[in-house]
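User: Can you recover a sequence for this backbone? Please restate the input before giving your answer.

Assistant: Of course. Working from this structure:
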């Protein structure tokens, strides 16, 4: 069976970026038996700590998309992030805004593979894990990576987001 086009696009982006997992091998997307819509569900399916799940959250940052990759153990403090970035407003994006800017559905937004690069913050708490897991373009797809790799493949900025 052919993978979903979003999964293909994310794997292609990972391959082009030379994305690596915690062992240094190429990051490969894994399709889980069921969709995982929460960090807790993803952690249970992968048998890892919830903090190892890199939630991909799209925010509307004064009209522009902002991707925050946060540890599954955290909630984004939107006030703190808005202040640090000098924004007037940082609000959770609508499903339409998310799909417009990522081409992916909420629950499956990957850190890369979007139509255009998106400004990205990476939760510094993810640095505490040798391997982390991120979404692969649809709610059943995930891939292993590391904190350093997330920063590199997204051209992201390390930040305290919780």
């Amino acid at each position: 069976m052919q993978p979903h086009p979003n999964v293909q696009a994310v794997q292609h982006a990972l391959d082009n970026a030379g994305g690596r997992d915690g062992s240094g091998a190429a990051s490969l997307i894994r399709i889980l038996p069921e969709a995982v819509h929460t960090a807790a569900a993803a952690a249970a399916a992968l048998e890892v700590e919830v903090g190892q799940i890199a939630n991909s959250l799209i925010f509307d940052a004064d009209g522009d998309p902002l991707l925050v990759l946060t540890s599954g153990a955290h909630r984004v403090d939107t006030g703190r992030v808005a202040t640090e970035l000098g924004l007037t407003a940082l609000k959770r994006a609508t499903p339409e805004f998310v799909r417009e800017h990522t081409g992916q559905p909420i629950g499956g937004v990957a850190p890369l593979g979007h139509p255009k690069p998106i400004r990205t913050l990476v939760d510094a708490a993810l640095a505490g894990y040798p391997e982390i897991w991120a979404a692969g373009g649809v709610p059943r797809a995930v891939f292993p990576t590391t904190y350093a790799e997330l920063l590199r493949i997204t051209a992201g900025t390390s930040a305290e987001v919780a």
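That completes the design. The helical segments are 5-17, 39-46, 78-85, 95-102, 147-154.
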